């Protein structure tokens, strides 16, 4: 029977969605002009008035309010044009080569030492941020639970527990409202765990504002409010995003948000170097979260970085070790145990080193069955969250509605938790070695506590540890079953809210609950004198946690090492690996991993490791973009300005060619120049009055380009007079004279492999005479994928 409070809350929520749907339906019946017609080529169409190509363009506020549709139509067959690629391939122009040649051997050694120094600073700051989050969450959550516990104990005998429920709801809603408001209104990119965004960034996609200082501040404050607010979330996932932001900021030696330039690490102000440091930051975040430095390195390798080398591995491992050491050191001081390095990460699973947690060969099939069940539950979780996210994209896209939904989820979570505790009759004796931080007696006898309260009236990390290490008999099977089902749907509803939160700990908690239930049921059907090891449910809680997390996020190698390092027992390496592999195989049969789903929902042009298996029939001629806008070696300034100002194309790379004498045929390829380079040249007026003039152009250095990185000014902010438009610009010194090219007949898998392995942004297609005929970009490759009916082509849209 559903309590009246929950019924009323859900009724209000459904009524709100119903009214919203009616309003949106009326809106679209009257405003059908929002959908633009398809272009003749069928490759590009626009949706609504969601202009996202020029991020610097200012839109009239009143017009945007009037014309903003209340429902955003969503189609998973789209690929967004608003995302640009990062320049991971160095532009080896004359300026770059001259600087490299001038640098001595000692200069290169100093650069290498600077890289190690940056990695050390990344580890230290990431560890300090993790320490700050842990201390603040522990104190605020402890204060909240103590207040609620005292209130419940006071009203248990006298009556009036509804006041305790209201207090719990109000406290949760207040914290969550603060966390949601700062995310929704100040920095929306800080929502969620940030792992999908960091995966995209390391894959080569430029996600706007993902590594800003403002994003880091909102992320840290938001995750504190979310965890303290009692949501079904964890603080470990956002640490990966936080570490990446720290790495991106430190490696540049300045803060563009604060407009402070410290004049250090200027050599690293380019995407190639920044990518490597962000990989180290993500690994340091994993290390600080789980106390798993090796797992952090493997996480960056498996889930993040697209490009790898041996020295990068060492530097990333160094950053990870520094991160977990820093957290350990300061947490030992905080706990008045200096030198006691027993808190390597934010989550501490405890030690699985007792004899009762051993496993035997005949248990491995049971572990594999649990892995398959975890894959099924993970697939169900991902499917439900997928449709819920579609609903949010269409209807709950305004900040005020997003905050309302977050507060609603916080209120429902508190209400459901209180209801489960209230109706639970699972009373356990309160022993001297009990692990419960805030035991609730409620209606239990003296010397007993409510077992359901141990799972829900606590932070998720402590609940996981309790399920792992509480002795047999601490939980009733009915309690675990009800908690698993309830927390599963709460976690599914919570992930995707406009709050900073992760899914690691909720997944572990769900899996630990049904894994412990599996162990209890297995022991009850087994004779006690035949197999004694089945009597301990702690190891099954661990296996269930791994199976559930693997079934949701589909990580294998890195997650195996993370779990082994977090438990401190390599004995479980084989079972955890088998469980994670089984969960991934079973889950992938139904649906993709949770992070991949959210990447696809954002229509990001994400490139996987390999091209689609059935794409050998396609060639570069069929996938390339053409015709291509090219420049001469010496080009007229007015022509350059007109091309850069054309918002309908918004190209970022331009082949430089040598025109033939008659000017009718395309010229041979001479190089490639980027939009950002041309903007810097125009800003510094690097041109002469006429071609072949004896006057030299103004000399620029690489420092001028690095000072403008990464926020290059828009072309609209650069004033070029009419006389200057008639001047000529020599691109020879600034273009990349050795761009990568392929012929028209190159197969799509070969183009994909070259593009993906080298981290390219542009790949020029030439004919047999080395003349430019097309250009391959990330979007040209990402739009081909394997669907239900074979090879499918996505549509490009400005969404």
Automatic annotation (TrEMBL):
Its main location: membrane. The chain crosses the membrane at residues 116-137, 165-186, 216-234, 277-300, 312-334, 364-388, 400-423, 475-496, 503-525. The keyword Repeat applies. It is found in: Membrane. CDD domains: CBS_pair_voltage-gated_CLC_euk_bac, ClC_6_like. It is a multi-pass membrane protein. GO terms for molecular function: chloride channel activity; chloride:proton antiporter activity. This is Chloride channel protein. It comes from Paramormyrops kingsleyae.
